[in-house]
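Hi all, a correction to my earlier message: I attached the wrong file for DNA replication factor Cdt1 C-terminal domain-containing protein. Here's the right sequence:
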Amino acid sequence: MENESLPGILSSIDTLLCLHFASSTTIPTLFEICTKATHLTKRRVDQSVVEQIVGYDPTLYNVVYTGTSCNDYGLSIPSGVSLAKFGASIPHRKTRLEEKVRDTSTSYPPAKLASLVRLQKPVFVESPSKFHRHSLSVSSSPSKDRGGFGSASLSPTKRLASNLDLLPVTPTKKGGAGLDYDLDSPTDMPDSPTKSRYRTSPSKVTKLSELLSNSPKKFVLKQMPVEKGSMSLLERIKLKEKLRNEEKELHSPEKAYRERILSKMPQLYDVIYELSSSDEDLLPQFKCFSIPKIISMVQDSFTLTISEQEVKDTISELTKAIPSRIEIIEQGSILAIKVHKLNREEDLVNINESIKIN
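and the right structure:
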């Protein structure tokens, strides 16, 4: 492969590592990175290409041994470099490699990955959530210069404590519940706000055990006292149901229709009053008018539309309000109203009282 294409491949591998560690803390395998870089650069990228790149600068990546085969390697960002800083340095890394590639006076032979593994230290990757995770050991053989990661003489618990920089604590029987801790030595941990989290008082332990216990007292139902003069639950339910039914009746279509009929009674009375006053040739005792004639005159005189049924229902309400003045008579199939001598002032008073009652 031409060396001029190596800076572009380096930039692609750097971008893939940034995308990987942005959502994961595991170290990707070399095969996985090479496969993705091949699709990204449209050039064949394999272990030999990576060895050519790290031959120019062995500190470009951390090479991690991830298995038992001789080709089980992983790539990670350099030690001590945060993910954000590594992403910002991608253009500078590419430019620096381009300068070394153009420098023909110095030869840079490919570096074997196996030789780089023995020089690496454990990798720490800073994830976006600001938590620091420890990766697997980068070497399959123990080494003294790796501290807790390669020391076979330390137990797993002490090895983890030494790498996390935590002071060991030993449990005691103080407090009766085994939740209180003492330090091995008074000088092992200085007095600090974080020291209090290692100690729990016996009183707090007792309260906590009471909260977590399923005591029968928690399941005893107690009757709430009822104040004098207040309604019981059943009475309140009945009252609420009664109010709901009254509200339904108040806003029902039948109620609205009846109110509309009652409101038209004074206007219909005026039509009948004018009609009875205009016929002077009839006898003064009473006068008769057919219902169809009354309906026609009412529909012509009202500004708003009114149906025949509404006129009939309004006449029926008038006969109930002033029965001595107006009554309905039926002769065969003909309906008519019999109108006696009217007194407008008295009749309107009686009509308004009937409207208020209904």
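Sorry for the mix-up. Residues 119-153, 160-190, 192-198 have pLDDT under 50 and may be disordered.
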